[in-house]
Design brief:
By secondary structure, this protein is of the alpha/beta class. The protein folds into 3 domains: about 5-200, NAD(P)-binding Rossmann-like Domain (Rossmann fold); about 210-305, N-(1-d-carboxylethyl)-l-norvaline Dehydrogenase, domain 2; about 350-510, Thiol Ester Dehydrase, Chain A, CATH 3.10.129.10. It has helices spanning about 5-10, 35-45, 60-75, 95-100, 110-125, 140-145, 180-190, 210-225, 230-240, 240-255, 260-270, 290-300, 305-325, 330-350, 380-395, 400-405, 480-495, 500-510; strands spanning about 25-30, 50-55, 90, 105, 130-135, 155-160, 170, 195-200, 360-365, 410-420, 430-440, 440-450, 455-470, 475. It binds nicotinamide-adenine-dinucleotide.
Length: about 500
């Protein structure tokens, strides 16, 4: 299995140049409804520019609203350092869009002939190394690519609503798709925090919608036969299997259900019921009476809450679930972890390298949600920003995910923050970090947070870090190469003018 570091390297922007695909700086969207809006929000959030194209000019206001709406939950998905947001532009000229972008994601209505016509047209306006992906829920890639120019760069990339929060994207190639297309597209989707799942061969409905449809058919039967209401059927998932699915899916969970003997015992025990059968294969007729029952049932469940309100609740829960799964490095939590590692690595690259003639510089933009009721950056964010700057410097010294995988890390022992000025929403700042002192088990850092426009000092911080073995936790000497990298930085930083306050911090803590 790839380590997080390798994955982060593999998906990194510049490496996308390899193979079939160019680096994706600008994403083109064809169709800007629910799914197009979701793609826009995700791509913009992770620093990719978006040109959205739709035949209806009124969709411009819609997509801008959808992006703003998604931002509330997206902003809380990760506190890892983010690049500057991408820029969104809109056009009704599909071919003009195709001529300006590095990757195209099609999200127009689910009609084969319409998609074939638009894909064929757009493929003639896009350079041959621009990958073109369709969000289709169930159409076959071989059918969709039939009339395209350079069909080898086409794939299905089926996302899930809301695209900006759910990481799954199913990748499916058609008969004319080049083998490298799926791999190149997978790198792009992983770069924007998704989990690309390559489907071995094209089948109608790909993987997930076939599974969802089996459940959906059964729901319709049970409501139709008055066995249960829509609310009762949702409870049957939400309080039980739904909780397990987010971590392990159906098969691994059933393996556990078989006890020590696992899946083999589980199949012996429950295999006979597959013959009864419990379930119906054919969907019921969608009669007016069934439709009325489905609508009345879900309206009762909504309890007067609007779709927007329910979407916000859903989004908050989706963010929370992914954060809970992250420490276990499982399912969507593992995807979030890999994304964060990539963001830290990229922030480190974007920061000025720890030069011999200057402190390590880490750029920061004050995000609107960091502002408190006083109208400026709230206390805890100072600690976060200084912590991120520390992470960037330590990574440069070799304390990366591989190092930590060996149960070695640096823990914060002391933080002394002094505030000098206020920081406002969207203000551009930077942190200069210096190594004040280092020995085998300790490193003292000095951070200065300054405004980018006039270098005015906003806050300073002295921090003491202890090197630890994390299992069980005890202070241990750091690896020699890490200590010598930090010592080299200290030597370089000693040549800089002494920062006010740093000497007192260093002197006050020599005994620890
Ligand atoms: N809604 C979902 O949950 C979901 C999930 C995954 C995939 N999908 C797939 O994504 C695609 C889009 O679904 P949606 O729910 O966003 O639909 P939607 O109806 O919300 O949006 C479709 C958009 O395409 C635009 N459009 C129509 N004809 C066009 C053309 N010729 N050129 C450019 N734009 C055109 C429409 O104006 C509209 O804005 C479908 O293929 C669907 O199967 C949907």
């Amino acid at each position: 299995m790839e380590t997080l570091k390798n994955l982060a390297r593999a998906v990194g922007g510049p490496t996308i140049r390899k193979g079939l695909m160019r680096e994706v700086k600008t994403l083109g969207l064809l169709g800007t409804g629910v799914i197009g809006g979701g793609w826009a929000a995700r791509a913009l959030h992770f620093g990719i520019d978006v040109i959205a194209a739709d035949v209806k000019p009124e969709m411009e206001a819609w997509i801008r609203g959808a992006v703003a709406n998604a931002e509330t939950a997206l902003a809380r998905l990760t506190f890892a350092p983010l690049p500057t947001k991408g820029k969104l532009s809109f056009t009704t000229d599909l071919r003009a869009m195709a001529g300006q972008v590095d990757f195209i994601q099609e999200n127009i209505p689910e009609q084969l002939e319409l998609k074939q016509r638009v894909l064929s047209d757009v493929s003639r306006a896009a350079a041959a190394d621009v990958l073109i992906a369709s969000s289709t829920s169930g159409l076959m890639p071989s059918d969709l690519q039939r009339d395209m120019q350079a069909p080898e760069r086409f794939l299905v990339a089926h996302p899930f609503n809301p695209v900006y929060l759910l990481p799954l994207v199913e990748l499916v190639g058609g008969r004319q798709t080049a083998p490298g297309t799926l791999a190149a597209a997978a790198r792009f989707y992983a770069y924007i925090g998704m989990h690309p799942l390559t489907v071995r061969r094209e089948v109608p409905g790909h993987l997930t919608d076939r599974l969802q449809e089996a459940l959906w058919r059964e729901i319709l039967h049970m409501v139709n036969d008055d066995v249960a209401t829509t609310g009762e059927l949702d409870d049957s998932i939400v309080y039980g299997p739904g909780l397990r699915w987010a971590a392990m899916g159906t098969n691994l969970i059933y393996h556990l259900a078989g006890g020590e003997a696992g899946m083999r015992h589980m199949l012996r025990q429950f295999g006979p019921c597959l013959k009864w059968p419990w379930t119906h294969l054919e969907a019921p007729e969608l009669t007016e009476s069934l439709i009325d029952k489905m609508v009345a049932g879900t309206q009762a469940q909504a309890g007067g809450r609007s779709i927007r309100e329910l979407e916000r609740l859903r989004d908050d829960c989706l963010v929370a679930i992914q954060q809970v799964l992250k420490p276990y490095n499982i399912g969507a939590g593992a995807t979030l972890r890999a994304l964060e590692e990539r963001l830290y690595v990229d922030a480190g690259r974007a920061a000025a390298p720890a030069r011999a003639d200057g402190a390590a510089r880490y750029p920061v933009q004050v995000r609107p949600e960091w502002i408190d009721y006083n109208g400026h950056m709230t206390d805890s964010r100072y600690l976060q920003v200084f912590g991120d700057a520390t992470d960037v410097l330590l990574r440069a010294a070799g304390v990366d995910d591989d190092y930590r995988a060996g149960a070695r890390s640096l823990f914060t022992a002391e933080s002394h923050i002094r505030h000098h000025a206020e920081a406002h929403a969207l203000e551009s700042l930077y942190v200069d970090t210096r190594v004040l002192a280092v020995d085998a088990k300790r490193v003292r850092l000095w951070h200065e947070l300054r405004r980018a426009n006039d270098d005015g000092l906003v806050a300073s911080a002295g921090q003491l870090y202890l090197h630890v073995h994390t299992s069980p936790t005890r202070v241990t000497p750091m690896e020699e190469q890490v200590q010598s990298a930090l010592a080299a930085l200290q030597l370089a930083h000693e040549r800089l003018p002494a920062p006010a306050g740093a000497a007192a911090f260093a002197a006050a803590h020599v005994e620890r």
